[in-house]
Amino acid sequence: MLTALFLGISYGFTAGISPGPMLGLLITQTLQRGWRAGNLVALAPLITDLPIIVLAVLLISQLPASALGWLAVAGGLFVLYLGCETALTAYRYAHGAAPSQALSSPIPAGAASSSVLWRAVVTNALNPHPYLFWGTVGAQLLIRNYEEQGTSGPILLLLGFYAFLVGTKLVISFVVNRSRHCLQGPLYHLVLFLSALLLIALGLWLFAEGLRSLL
């Protein structure tokens, strides 16, 4: 049982700190809207991953390779859109808008939270990496631990994985938010713009990755 928990912790921690669309989105949303927004991004996998895991265990091995390619293309385009929107926010702030006014649409807190969570859910749902992990390594680990330890094996693996996947991202969001209060004037604009470039680069990478698998 401890082996399943250790495997879950190891893979969850690695996934939590690995550069990718979700990490880029977490940083940009924390910079723009604060720790609460970063928390929502960190929690998004808890909403999107259950269908992915079920699909991986039951069906993903039977899907054509092109399915993940098209998913990567769609995900890349969406992340590109998020990066361009963040760059626009940085541009508005650089030209005199306050950080709260620089957001593309000033909206109430509840609606803003829904918007952040929606973006995070869509980003993760269109990100091919959860599908690749659960469709290859993850599904095999779940099945093998079930065969060796019964239901407790997969449960411990999933608990360890998501505790450290989400926990790592919550810590990153906290650190970014604390740094955010130290960022003023041109420095804030620069960090926000660099975050936008990160999202754009990740979007292009996802898009190119999808095209390579389709060609």
Describe this structure in words.
It is found in: Cell membrane. This is Lysine transporter LysE. Keywords: Cell membrane, Membrane, Transmembrane, Transmembrane helix. With 215 residues, the protein is mainly α. It has one domain (2-214). It is built from 9 helices and no strands. α2 (21-33) runs antiparallel to α3 (35-58) and α2 packs across α8 (152-180). It is globular and about 60 Å long. The N and C termini lie far apart (43 Å).
Short description:
The protein is built from nine helices and no strands. The protein is mainly alpha-helical and 215 residues long.
- Mind telling me the C-alpha Rg? 18 Å
Question: Shape, please?
Answer: globular
Q: Give the % helix.
A: over 70%
Tell me what portion of residues adopts beta-strand conformation: under 5%
**Main sheet attributes: strand count, strand direction, barrel closure:** none
Distance between the termini: 43 Å
Number of strands: 0
As for the number of domains, it is 1
Give the number of helices.
9
- Secondary-structure content class: mainly alpha
Order of helices and strands: HHHHHHHHH
Sum up the structure in keywords.
mainly alpha, globular, 215 residues, single chain
